[in-house]
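Q: How would the structure tokens look for this protein?
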Amino acid sequence: MKGKIKFESALIRLEEIVHKLEEGVDELDKIVDLFEEGSELADFCNKKLEKIENKIEIVTNKIHKTENIAEEI
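A: Here is the predicted structure in token form.
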């Protein structure tokens, strides 16, 4: 995977790869290339989702702390 790619673009490309592999590919080298690219894209998407989940958790915790402070006042 070269350069910066957006999550949505990575997901679309990953879906294309899965579709191609499901249809069947005759060349072993092409299968390996697609599998490697798909694995990289899946890893990228998983890491991106983990970062987003962490950000959501941080924001949620801040909101709860603010609510708790407001209740104490």
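The helical segments are 7-23, 28-72.

The mean pLDDT is 92.

Upvote if useful.
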